[in-house]
């Protein structure tokens, strides 16, 4: 038996025949109701069982997206934008059925503006594709979730990754959007200027809205010059807390480090097996430094001194580009490596983020808590931001394992909230973090979110049942 979806499915009704006919007429074989296609679009990377849409449309333009929105709005049918399908919290599950709108074929880089350090793309462009296509400009786009996510999906989840400590998250790096509203209007938010005080910041409203307020069809993001020098290193520590203390001191001293990632001993074991590395099975920090040759040297020397003070072993350097990519590739695929620690498992992934001053306490208390767990719980983290993930490895067919994982997750979130942190640093709310939002924001703030949702989507068609319940309830 699969563990049930964390929130009961909403009422479903079959697709109105007139809508089906209109989609068939408008999209031909780019509208599919086949079981395989619906199955693929009714799941994500979470451990929750799929909840299938009734049909999938593959859009090719903003005009087509607007047409689908108008039709779904006319018939009050749920509409769920779909990017690369890599979200982790049940975001894509069609809990009320409806249409999944797949944007992956809208994958053109529309305009590169190297002199402004910006690029405009369609939402289906993935982060790796973007960096490949702009390689020759000497610029790069730094935001790198572990999966090869789409820029539209990354906007919608307010994603970040290993580079956020230096370059920020999607919140800081999106300048402008084209958005299709629930009733099919096309609006533009923001401009290509680096800053603006012109009215409410609608761009930021859509960043992190998880497909519940509008469908993003164009994105303009900031780019950065490829650094003159890059060097990467790994360093082993006697304990998690000594590694975390080293990171906190590095950040508090203002060292402009590009990446600093924590990987615990169990995650190192997984990575070693998966990527044929031979790192000692101890807690590690992975570092990357960007800048001029002299700047990188200076940053590295400062960080080496800090790590030595906290019991860190010698730095193991990866200076050649191929060694650096091997190291960071291992970090990026850590999630899949960790899944192999328990064959057939799925991961309940925690995602708390706390103020940097509370990170050591939060990690230490979490480590103590996990000792009693019967489940493997490797930990990795973007610790420079105060954000870490426990991958709680469960057999989703064993309710007792799912219950234990949810208990651990709840305790971690409560701990982070009590320290002034958040239940989700980067993955978003989806279905899985809904119950924590009242605790984090309060009922009145959630009511305000409902007012915004209702104003933008009065028929409640856009990704229904996500982020919060439509009406105030015991758990929000
Ligand atoms: C191995 C692994 C590692 C990961 N590491 C990170 C990490 O380091 N940092 C991080 O932030 N996340 C990480 N994630 C989570 C995931 O990659 C991000 O949430 C990503 O931003 C999702 O993008 P996507 O294109 O896959 O979106 P999808 O999963 O397709 O969709 C996610 C949400 O966005 C909405 N959406 C998608 N496209 C649009 C659009 N064009 N307009 C409006 N709404 C839209 C969907 O309706 C859904 O609610 C990781 C996931 C995996 C599997």
From TrEMBL:
<dbReference type="InterPro" id="IPR006094">
    <property type="entry name" value="Oxid_FAD_bind_N"/>
</dbReference>
<dbReference type="InterPro" id="IPR004113">
    <property type="entry name" value="FAD-bd_oxidored_4_C"/>
</dbReference>
<dbReference type="InterPro" id="IPR016166">
    <property type="entry name" value="FAD-bd_PCMH"/>
</dbReference>
<dbReference type="InterPro" id="IPR016169">
    <property type="entry name" value="FAD-bd_PCMH_sub2"/>
</dbReference>
<protein>
    <recommendedName>
        <fullName>D-lactate dehydrogenase (cytochrome)</fullName>
        <ecNumber>1.1.2.4</ecNumber>
    </recommendedName>
</protein>
<dbReference type="GO" id="GO:0016491">
    <property type="term" value="F:oxidoreductase activity"/>
</dbReference>
<dbReference type="Pfam" id="PF01565">
    <property type="entry name" value="FAD_binding_4"/>
</dbReference>
<dbReference type="InterPro" id="IPR036318">
    <property type="entry name" value="FAD-bd_PCMH-like_sf"/>
</dbReference>
<dbReference type="InterPro" id="IPR016171">
    <property type="entry name" value="Vanillyl_alc_oxidase_C-sub2"/>
</dbReference>
<keyword id="KW-0285">Flavoprotein</keyword>
<keyword id="KW-0560">Oxidoreductase</keyword>
<keyword id="KW-0809">Transit peptide</keyword>
<comment type="similarity">
    <text>Belongs to the FAD-binding oxidoreductase/transferase type 4 family.</text>
</comment>
<dbReference type="InterPro" id="IPR016164">
    <property type="entry name" value="FAD-linked_Oxase-like_C"/>
</dbReference>
<dbReference type="Pfam" id="PF02913">
    <property type="entry name" value="FAD-oxidase_C"/>
</dbReference>
<feature type="domain" description="FAD-binding PCMH-type">
    <location>
        <begin position="49"/>
        <end position="226"/>
    </location>
</feature>
<keyword id="KW-0274">FAD</keyword>
């Amino acid at each position: 038996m699969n563990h049930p979806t964390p929130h009961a499915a909403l009422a479903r009704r079959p697709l109105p025949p007139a809508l089906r006919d209109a989609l068939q007429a408008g999209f031909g074989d780019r509208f599919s109701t086949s079981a395989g296609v619906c199955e693929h679009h009714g799941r994500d990377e979470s451990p929750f069982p799929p909840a299938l849409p009734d049909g999938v449309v593959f859009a090719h333009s903003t005009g087509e997206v607007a047409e689908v929105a108008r039709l779904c709005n006319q018939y009050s049918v749920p509409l769920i934008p779909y990017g690369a399908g890599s979200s982790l919290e049940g975001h894509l599950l069609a809990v009320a059925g409806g249409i999944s709108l797949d944007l992956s074929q809208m994958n053109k880089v529309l305009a590169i503006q190297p002199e402004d350090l910006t690029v405009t793309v369609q939402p289906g462009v993935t982060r790796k594709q973007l960096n490949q296509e702009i390689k020759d400009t000497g610029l790069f786009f730094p935001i790198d979730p572990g999966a090869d996510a789409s820029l539209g999906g990354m906007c919608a989840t307010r994603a970040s990754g290993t580079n956020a400590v230096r370059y920020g998250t999607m919140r800081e790096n999106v300048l402008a959007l084209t958005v299709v509203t629930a009733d099919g209007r096309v609006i533009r938010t923001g401009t290509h200027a680096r800053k603006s005080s012109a009215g409410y910041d609608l761009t930021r409203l859509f960043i992190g809205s998880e497909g519940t307020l509008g469908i993003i069809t164009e994105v303009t993001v900031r780019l950065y010059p490829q650094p003159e020098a890059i060097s990467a290193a790994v360093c082993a520590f006697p304990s998690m807390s000594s590694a975390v203390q080293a990171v906190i001191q590095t950040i508090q001293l203002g060292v402009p480090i590009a990446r600093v990632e924590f990987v615990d001993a169990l995650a190192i074991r997984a990575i070693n097996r998966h990527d044929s590395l031979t790192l000692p099975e101890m807690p590690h920090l992975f570092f990357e430094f960007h800048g001029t040759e002299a700047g990188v040297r200076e940053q590295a020397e400062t960080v080496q001194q800090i790590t030595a003070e906290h019991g860190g072993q010698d730095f193991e350097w990866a200076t050649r580009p191929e060694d650096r990519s091997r190291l960071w590739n291992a970090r990026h695929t850590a999630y899949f490596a960790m899944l192999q620690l328990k064959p057939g498992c799925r991961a309940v992934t925690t995602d708390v983020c706390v103020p940097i001053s509370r990170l050591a306490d939060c990690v230490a208390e979490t480590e103590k808590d996990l000792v009693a767990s019967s489940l493997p719980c490797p930990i990795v983290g973007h610790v420079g931001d105060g954000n870490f993930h426990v991958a709680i490895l469960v057999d989703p067919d064993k309710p007792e394992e799912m219950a234990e994982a949810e208990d651990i997750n709840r305790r971690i979130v409560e701990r982070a909230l009590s320290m002034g942190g958040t239940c989700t640093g980067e993955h978003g709310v989806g279905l899985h973090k809904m119950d924590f939002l009242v605790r984090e924001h309060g009922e009145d703030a959630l009511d305000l979110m409902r007012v915004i949702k209702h104003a933008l989507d009065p028929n409640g068609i856009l990704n229904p049942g996500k982020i919060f319940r439509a009406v105030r309830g015991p758990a929000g």
